[in-house]
Amino acid sequence: MSATTYLFLANCAVWLGVTGYLVFLSLRAGELEKRMHQLELLGGGDNDRS
């Protein structure tokens, strides 16, 4: 295989990794949002300490 083929495959691998990481972050953010909502329902969301 030529150098261009290897470069293309490496580029695809990098973008697949970036995409996978962004999906992971998105899922984690959804879990955190859900947990924050649960805490607010339990009365833990009152952070008005003025």
Computed Rg: 21 Å
Q: Please tell me what the overall shape is.
A: rod-shaped
> What is the number of E strands?
0
| Mean pLDDT over the residues | 91
Our count of helices gives 1
Largest sheet: none
**Relative strand content:** under 5%
Helix content estimate:
over 70%
Task: Output the structural class.
Answer: mainly alpha
Quaternary structure classification = single chain
- Distance separating the two termini: 66 Å
Can you tell me the residue ranges where pLDDT is under 50 for at least 5 consecutive residues? Answer: none
Question: What's the order of the H and E elements?
Answer: H
Q: If you had to describe this structure to a student in words, what would you say it looks like?
A:
The protein is mainly alpha-helical and 50 residues long. It is 78% helix and 0% strand. It has one helix and no strands. The longest helix is centred in the middle third of the chain and has 39 residues, at 3-41. The model has no long low-confidence stretch (mean pLDDT 91).
Features:
single chain; 50 residues; mainly alpha
Short note summarizing the structure:
With 50 residues, the chain is an all-alpha fold. 78% of the residues lie in helices and 0% in strands.
Architecture blueprint of SSEs:
Elements: H1 3-41
